[in-house]
Batch of 2 targets.
Target 1
Amino acid sequence: MIPIARPQMGDDEKQRVWEAMAAGSLAQGPRVKEFEESFAALVGAAHGVATSSGTTALHLALLGYGVGDGDEVITVPFTFIASANSIVYTGARPVFVDVDESDFTMDPAQVEAAITPRTRAIMPVSLYGQPAQMDELTDIAERHGLAVVEDAAQAHGAAIGERRSGTWGAGAFSFYPTKNMTTGEGGIITTDDAELAGRVRLLREHGMKVRYHHEIIGYNFRMTDIGAAIGLAQLPKLAAANERRQAIAARYDAELRGVITPRVRPGVTHVYHQYTIRVARRDEFAARLAERGVGSGIYYPIPVHRQKPFIALGYGDRSYPVTDRLTEQVLSVPVHPSLSEDEVSTVIGAVNETAAELA
Ligand SMILES: Cc1ncc(COP(=O)(O)O)c(C=O)c1O
């Protein structure tokens, strides 16, 4: 079976991790600092604050902007639940707006109507590796005095023109093993805002600048030096890995038949964390791909507002028609950089045969 993801661990990762272990540097230490600086530089942001996960990066970014009890944050229901959960953790309420059917990201045309006097921030999600419509959304945020937190968990190296994901307001990335690059578990907040970076640093470490002198109630959301060691080995390979993903996606774009392939907005660099097609009879389609030796993934089968905890919070009867349609139709096929050309051909053959059978 060709798997939907295949994390790559090589000699560089082993060497870096061994060096961290040999130095006795297991918790947050010099490798985290080096990783923060290197990742921020790659993104083109002035500051990077590494965290224990993408979820804690989102949570801290919101807290850093002062989001809390009684506030509202606008996000999308077509995402991993962590986007909305991070809002709930702060005491704020997620307000969902639907996604744009053309690119699966937040529809800017719907945002203004969702803004109320309680709105504090907008959290677009750069889903599957394509940046959300950040310029339009940032314009709206600026007009209304709102913070922007980009959920860039799937968008390492993605860009609009020359400007990379993670440089609008605050960006929150995930380094979970299946992402375009990994630290094991881990995340990072990137921003040009020095004050925000200072606040999230403080929050990440129990409100402590001087050891055991606590200025605020904070958290332990630190990345480990072991994780950062893996990340430092992965970083120099990201550009080539993304290019390989793009090359595979280009073959899929050219050779897949009978399915809807992803649309990339002009001028946008899509880094294909996922290559996601739309098909009718999706679950049967996935089962037939599996019979042909091709793994696939559904991101996501249930929109966030229809997940149990959000039904309990009163969101269950809302309707977001594009999201509802997409959750029934999306299917991601393997696009990871370690696929051989033969494996890519196998995926293409399997998708095309299945599409013909189910037409
Ligand atoms: C869109 C999105 N947001 C947030 C997260 C949370 O990241 P993590 O799993 O590192 O906490 C993920 C990754 O799983 C994600 O895909």
Target 2
Amino acid sequence: MIVSTNEPLPLTSSRAEQIFPTLTPAQIRRIAALGRLRATMRGEVLIEQGDSTVPFFVVISGQLEIVRPLGAVETLIALHGPGQFTGEVNMVSGRRALFRARVSKPGEVIELDRQHFIALMQTDAELGEILMRAFILRRVELLAAGVGDAVLLGSNLSAGTLRIKEFLMRNGHPYSYIDLEKDPDVQRMLDNFLIAAGEIPVLICHGQQVLRNPTNQQVADCLGFNDSVEQTHLRDLIIVGAGPAGLAAAVYGASEGLDVLVLETSTPGGQAGSSSKIENYLGFPTGISGMELTGRAYNQAQKFGAQILIAQGRQLARDQKPYIIEVENGAQIPARAVVIATGAEYRKLPLKDLSRFESAGVYYSATFLEAQLCGGEEVIVVGGGNSAGQAAVFLSERTKRVHMLIRSAGLAESMSRYLIRRIEETPAIVMRTHTEIVALEGGDHLESVRWRNSQTGQTEEHRICHVFVMTGAVPNTRWLDGCVVLDAKGFIKTGPDLSPEDLSAARWPLARTPYLLETSLPGVFAVGDVRSGSIKRVASAVGEGSIAISFVHRVLRE
Ligand SMILES: Cc1cc2nc3c(=O)[nH]c(=O)nc-3n(C[C@H](O)[C@H](O)[C@H](O)COP(=O)(O)OP(=O)(O)OC[C@H]3O[C@@H](n4cnc5c(N)ncnc54)[C@H](O)[C@@H]3O)c2cc1C
């Protein structure tokens, strides 16, 4: 085995003490009371990369080295001395270990099994805070350094590569990326793993398993995202969707003692996770990126014991109690109550060839990831709502010019005042009213766009390779297959919005009327953007998700 470096990864020095804190003797005594003291031998592997049940270790004497094995090469990630401890975010989520922990100097450690570790996190507020902060910061460092248990080989010109990058990034999973277009060593890597260039994107998990152009579900399975989630036992509550509404329900439900499982098709964070900067969420006067906000909520939910399964809810069986939710791998998960928080999906432009350019020039979110792909060129933002306005302002700082295309005569009716003012004050944003895209052209990537002014009838063609579509959303309710009452646009009706006719058509079985946020099925709630009449904002989604839990308690007592 070759150790590629003797120096641990460079860290953000200002935060080194928070990333690798040294615990006080009193703190160590509290941990020791829950675990066992044991001797260690030089070279002993305490945690192997890919292990699924990972204990927590505090070093009393000696030293541990954390290394990433990849093929025949090991990279040193960190060294833990006396008073320091192992682990990062996976300790909390129960996912597989990213790295190997080995004894580099013999001595003694305290070992805590997972059950006692979770109990410690939930009951010792001081240690819970120190550990959680260290784990999150360690993960942030790994993401920034591009070091994890997966290597992605691909090209920024390939839609499949961008899909997997987004899936890993928004799941907060660290990985290394090798770009076939730019990296001269790629051929050696491809030869090593017997991969033909046409099979990209390729994901190498744990240095061994090779996936050729995998689906998101295959990536999740290979990296063990769902390993720790038991998929058959009866839950108090299943939450479908991990956007702000679902995550809020998970935090409140789990912190109030409910056994909570969250199902998420793709990446936690929902639409909010694709927002570059949320400026109107209470408590963040300088704004916060949607990914950061929802990433924190995701960790918070897991800290309280909520489990998250990356899988699509396919069906809700309404005719039995407990309810059964079927997920895409066929598992049928029973639940005493259900919160539907499946939000909404981006509306697509009615253009031939649109799908060919999705992630290859056409994007539905404007974060740093997409901005990097634009490389200072001209871009188009389509739409006149707040999400379009935010995207335009964000992109105007990172690209040469932003053409904002809207069908109507102005923004006043669809956008918040503060954003309209920001757009008016930004010379790099060019407003084009009464304008619609009529054609997209290009090869593997979008190369030019034709737009038409509906008032003058004039058509123009521009060599622009990046279009951000921000034209609103339609509710994710198709999977419910009519088992709850919907409004004319497909959003779920709840509480007082359900008329006596709705309830009688749905065969509402109880003497009481539905609670606030309860659907036409007793014990099944709908929150956030998927709910009829909801205010499409992060704060209201979070509010509804948390309020729903008080009604879930009532239903569980009935
Ligand atoms: C680019 C952008 C910027 C925005 N900026 C702001 C802002 O600055 N301020 C603000 O207040 N609001 C903003 N919004 C609106 C805000 O993000 C939404 O109102 C909020 O995210 C709604 O939360 P939600 O949880 O109800 O739904 P969503 O965020 O839509 O989340 C739903 C989740 O459910 C999952 N899902 C769907 N179907 C299934 C299924 N069958 N099984 C499992 N999972 C499923 C989805 O993958 C998704 O993760 C923005 C929206 C966008 C798109």
